[in-house]
Amino acid sequence: MSSSVITNIGSLVTNDPALGEGPLGLLEDAALVIDGEHVAWVGPGAGAPAADESYDAAGRAVLPGFVDSHSHLVFAGDRTREFNARMSGRAYTAGGIRTTVAATRAASDEELHANVARYVAEALRQGTTTIETKSGYGLTPHDEARALRIAGAHADEVTFLGAHIVAPEYADDPAGYVDLVTGPMLDACVPYARWVDVFCERGAFDGDQARAVLTAGAARGLVPRVHANQLGHGPGVQLAVELDAASADHCTHLTDADVDALANSRTVATLLPGAEFSTRAVYPDARRLIDAGATVALSTDCNPGSSFTSSMPFCVAVAVRDMRMTPDEAVRAATLGGALALRRDDVGRLAPGARADAVVLDAPSHVHLAYRPGVPLVSAVWRRGVRASI
Ligand SMILES: [Zn+2]
User: 70 CA to middle of ligand 1, Å?
Assistant: First the structure.
């Protein structure tokens, strides 16, 4: 195992308040030493121990690699027309997912592998070093298990989302579909997933159905996470908290009781501004959640229907501009927040012992992620201690 040192870091986000200033644990004129896959040392540049190799950050900012805790990358097909129509004034409904289901079922394994690899690489170029992805465009035991197997070849975290929508074959028998998801489909999928998820929303699955899906998954060792309260008020957030889900995702339409429940739980509120951006919907109220004491994560929700972005810097910029998060809060939510939403303590921070996942920005501060929206600021990425070719 070789070691390397990143020197002349103008501004280093560690996300460890013990190491630097404020919640971001910010250090100026810093250095970071990597040993093998892990961070060995961080501190003032003058005190950095020697290493085999050296990289000069030349005064630029370094932060933990982004942790994208919510994406849907195993799909085929294209929904440009749907997006184009929506931008011309038509409302978004969950039904558009069926188009992707048909294309995904028809695709070969090779095609799906190539698609996922492409989007994971695209995310890495934008600084994402940990990514979760889901099934949910197969909706048969065979197609869901296939999606999870393919996801696991490329992504760090894999989620079973057989309960994305009711499969078209069960349009008249949603109860029968829930039986399939909690029975044979779960049997086929358990070996390939860590998490179980459900789209708890009008037009998808109601509270009772969502509970059945999550508790069946939990009984088989999968940990719940929930698509909750995206399109309207509903039981999703309360169910997520009750079942100790790792994350309630979207959280766009919340009652005071929902906010209180999140604030008094370890369930992370994962906000997905790409979805509101791409559907011209109202953004979630991040300020309300943060001020109440809830833990907030930011993720892309990268999917072909409602949020076709793999860019965490884009999500940070939108969260600052339109969700009234401070730049510090948004950067923390996109790194440490994502790690907490995946119940991981090895990523999302740059402290001794953490995975050496680091991003060098072509900028003097992490604030530039919001200050310079749309600009490709990621200039170097380390993942598991290895500098990625991006
Ligand atoms: Zn989603």
Answer: 6
